[in-house]
Design goal:
Elements lengths: L10 H15 L11 H8 L3 H13 L3 E4 L3 E4 L3 H25 L4 H10 L3
Antiparallel strand pairs: 1-2
Length: 119
């Protein structure tokens, strides 16, 4: 998988967002052991220190934790992951609605467009 980074946003912030999506989408489930910092860095083609910074942010948000000598794991708190997913979904929904309002469409019309999308 190829990852593209925006030069205007710090890479560790972008990595943090990718990782949040992995957590809320179920790519990594509660209690899963995460790949090593070096493996993640290799996957994303970034410096391990940059990857570590993103993982440290996730840890400060209690989304992951470290077991000494055993590595990093996804939180076992499913409610925390569900809350993050809800917040992320609301952000996307608000962004969609703002775009639709800019072109003169209200909620009812916006929902009609959503219903026309093939999954």
């Amino acid at each position: 998988m190829e990852f593209t980074f925006d030069n205007n946003i710090p890479i560790y912030i972008q990595l943090l967002e990718y990782m949040k999506i992995y957590l809320i989408s179920g790519t990594f489930k509660c209690g899963d052991k995460l790949p090593s910092v070096r493996d993640f860095a290799s996957t994303f083609k970034v410096n391990p220190n940059t990857m570590q910074k993103a993982l440290s942010e996730l840890e400060s948000m209690n989304l992951i934790y470290t077991e000494r000598t055993n590595g990093k794991y996804v939180t076992k708190d499913q409610k925390l992951i569900d809350k993050l997913k809800d917040e992320y979904a609301m952000t996307l929904a608000k962004s969609y609605m703002q775009g639709m309002k800019r072109i003169g469409l209200g909620k009812a019309d916006s929902i009609k467009y959503l219903e026309r999308i093939d999954d």
